[in-house]
TrEMBL record:
SUPFAM superfamilies: Glyoxalase/Bleomycin resistance protein/Dihydroxybiphenyl dioxygenase. This is VOC domain-containing protein. It comes from the Bacteria. It comes from Sphaerisporangium flaviroseum. Residues 55-74 are annotated as: Disordered.
Length: 136
């Protein structure tokens, strides 16, 4: 396939805190490269993630001041190994803001829930349940 997506970076004001948030929530391994500035997230197979410091903006050679976010933002989908509602509850306990509770999307035969992490990144957790709808 030509031109595949290979990496997605999530901006944050606090790379260390964001690393701990995602390590605690999803059990991801995170490598600081360099520590506190850019962290590589090892989240299993597929596209890799990174957490980058909004102030330093590596690898941008001419970083600009962080801009306030407004309007719709890109959404990052995470394939989870259990009902998304379970992850949503943990995310909220860790400081995230719930956007929607677990719901079933019939067209794609899967369940999803969403939150904003403490740094404003929208995450959607997706779970395929072998065609068996959970209680809606």
């Amino acid at each position: 396939m030509p031109n595949p997506v290979i990496f997605v970076d999530l901006p944050t004001r606090d790379v260390e805190a964001a690393s701990e948030f995602y390590r605690e929530l999803f059990g991801w391994k995170i490598n600081g490269r360099p520590q506190g500035v850019f962290h590589q997230v090892i989240a299993g197979e597929g596209v890799r993630l990174g957490l980058w410091n909004e102030r330093e903006q590596l690898p941008d050679p001419m970083p600009r001041p962080p801009q306030p976010r407004s309007g719709p933002q890109p959404r990052t989908y995470i394939l989870v190994d259990a009902a998304p509602g379970e992850y949503l509850n943990r995310a909220v306990m860790l400081g995230a803001t719930a956007l929607w509770e677990q719901t079933y999307w019939e067209e794609f035969d899967g369940h999803h829930a969403s939150f904003l992490d403490p740094w404003g990144n929208q995450i959607i957790m997706w779970w395929k349940s072998d065609g068996k709808a959970l209680t809606r």
